[in-house]
Known about the structure:
Layout lengths: L1 H19 L4 H20 L3 H8 L7 H4 L14 H19 L2 H12 L4 H16 L4 H19 L4 H15 L7 H10 L3 H5 L2 H25 L21 H19 L1 H4 L3 H16 L3 H7 L2 H19 L2 H13 L3 H18 L2 H18 L5 H15 L8 H12 L6 H27 L1
Helix pairs in contact: 1-2, 1-17, 2-17, 5-13, 5-15, 5-17, 6-8, 7-8, 7-9, 7-12, 8-9, 8-22, 9-12, 9-22, 10-20, 10-21, 12-23, 13-15, 15-16, 17-20, 18-19, 18-20, 19-21, 19-23, 20-21, 21-23
Amino acid sequence: MLAQILAVVIFLAMFILIITEVMERHVITLICAALSILLVFGLGMHSMDAVVRTLNIQSIFTKGFWYTAGEASEASTGINWETILFIAGMMIMVEGMARAGFFRWLCMQIARLVHYQVIPIFLTFMVLSFGLAMFIDSITVILFLAAVTIELSQLLKFQPVPMVLAEIFCANLGGSATMCGDPPNIIIGTSLGYSFSDFITNTGVMAVVSLAAVMIYFYLIFRKELTVNASASQDPSAYPSPSSAITDKKSFIASTVIFLCAVILLITHAQTGLTVSFIGTVIALITLLAAGKDAIKLLKKVDYKTLLFFVGLFVVVGSLEETGILELLAGVIEKISGGNTYLMIGIIVWISAIASAFIDNIPFAATMIPVISNLAASTSGVNLSVLAWTLAIGTDIGGSATPIGASANVVGIATASKEGYIIKWGRYCKAMAPATIIVVGISMGMIFLRYL
């Protein structure tokens, strides 16, 4: 009982501190992780085995961590090192692409292809944001896309805020489509043993249908604002050449090839048996080798704070799992739903969406994975995979509703404000909250029709 109380108190304290931002979030989770080991596992449980299971270091040295021989990987407990290694590898690859000017070149190329007309740029950049976020972290996508959007807005004399808001939403939506698009999906996939193709054929279908709906929605609410002061299209030669964005031709070609290899490896990893931790590690090593003398610069740019945040988070959630709290939470949801699958899915998707609008969706997803596992095990007729897709969509999309719900939102708003375009809570939520409700509603309807 003492261990359970301590685990809940530490977990709630961690969430409150993350929301209030009194310290950097990686510092908060690491302190709470240390307290979990000392107080929950030490004082409350007197169990060294619980510490070993939660730290989970031994998993790195197993064959299944790197290669599964086509078999489903076992559900992970404690620190999910597979997630951490994969994210680190993708960070290194993305830094290599950014250094070569890949993202700016791509944006300028698309703008030229649509003859620098505002509405076509608006629509194609939404699709671009969605497509890139399927394979690259949404923070990186928005960082470069928002910067190029603002640059184009100054050339073409249009209001960039509507376009930046639509890009943010589509990046979060694109991230929901694949296993590697958003951190919650990476955690769900690696913890429950789902592949890239599992996500693309389930959450991916929902995301594509939802993209069509939100493109229509954003076009209807923003078209007048975008074109009110926009200049007529001019000769493309009057604008900067996309090739001017390329800082190093050799690096550009190398980073493009590496990116395509990463996409192919991820799409085929269920067939090859290569795990995402293996793919992330190999892609990082190839990127560093291709960078040559600049490899150290790439390593310095890796967001180590985010990786440490994950380590601390997994330990705190592990303490809830070890003390049986998450099993109790699953029991509460089962009791409220009365074993009704429709009601259970409704509860999970809307609680996930609402919670993720105000709190970080990464710890929420990590907390809910053992909960849905217990629900699937204890409720007859409930498939774990259906609950997994429900959780993924809820956490990924819910974060779009408010300025603080997802990291991409914060980055996009910060990029715009740096250039003098302030996006306040009212302006943000007025456009994004209805879009979030539309997508969650469409996704829930598709889950009911397809799986139940």
